[in-house]
Amino acid sequence: MSMMGLVELRGRLVTEYDVEGWWPSETPFEVMVGAILTQQTTWETVTRVLDVLRSEGLLRVRELVHCDRERLERLIRPSGFYRQKAKRLLCLVEHVVTEHDGDVISMLDQDMHVLRAELLSLPGIGPETADSIILFAAGKPKFVAAAYVSRVLSRTGVLPEVGYYQVQGFVERTIWPDAASYQELYALLVKHARTVCRREPRCSVCALADVCMQALTSERTRCCLRPPR
DNA sequence: ACCCAGGTGGCCC
DNA sequence: GGGCCACATGGG
């Protein structure tokens, strides 16, 4: 009975899912806006809201920074937490304008660690949102250790249940730093987590994993990716 | 009528 | 450092 490693899990997921165009945005700035809007919200909803913002011409720093708060709140309302998110978006563009002369690219072009600290200093941008922006907008190799990611890794026996930075550190030590690799792995894990619970009785990826089967038979009969009670 | 969603910040111990 | 809670709408 061998422990499944991260590389093997990735190999199985690759044969199951197509994650082409996982983060469908036209520009780095759209990725940043999407990263904030998608907090605790489905991407389907975020896509609709992004379409609205785009049609209003607001997916550019110079335009969004002049949008008044009430209007922005109204436009993004379907994505939930709309008052917080409107504030966060306006703080972000305000920052880009004052600190980077409105140039998103020069902001994202900085050293990865400098950029990360800068993003984390903004309200409403925590570890996951910062890392999503670094990985998908800046294209730099920082792995996003989202809740789904650690859930899949623990349920498949790759890792025990640990915190954000431990999961991130493990992946970054295991997989050679490369933005495309990290993007693909992240997308595979999240897509798997979102898909697998609807498969009956069990998905092939998890059911084929020895360690996962152990966990399933000893603890629960339902899908291995449901959060524990 | 539940439960969940590609989190974060503030407060508490 | 971890454990709660509010934040809010929309879909299953």
Commentary on this structure:
With 229 residues, this protein is mainly α. The chain is 62% helix and 0% strand. The protein contains 14 helices and no strands. The relative contact order is 0.14. The structure holds a DNA duplex (13 and 12 nucleotides).
Quick synopsis:
62% of the residues lie in helices and 0% in strands. By secondary structure, the protein is mainly α. Helix 2 (28-37) runs antiparallel to helix 9, helix 8 (112-120) crosses helix 9 (127-137) and helix 10 (147-155) crosses helix 12 (179-196).
Task: Give structural attributes.
229 residues; mainly alpha; 14 helices; globular; DNA-binding
Helices and strands in order:
Blueprint lengths: L5 H11 L11 H10 L5 H13 L5 H4 L4 H8 L5 H19 L3 H5 L3 H9 L6 H11 L9 H9 L8 H11 L4 H18 L7 H4 L2 H10 L10
Helix pairs in contact: 2-9, 5-6, 8-9, 10-12
The structure holds a DNA duplex (13 and 12 nucleotides).
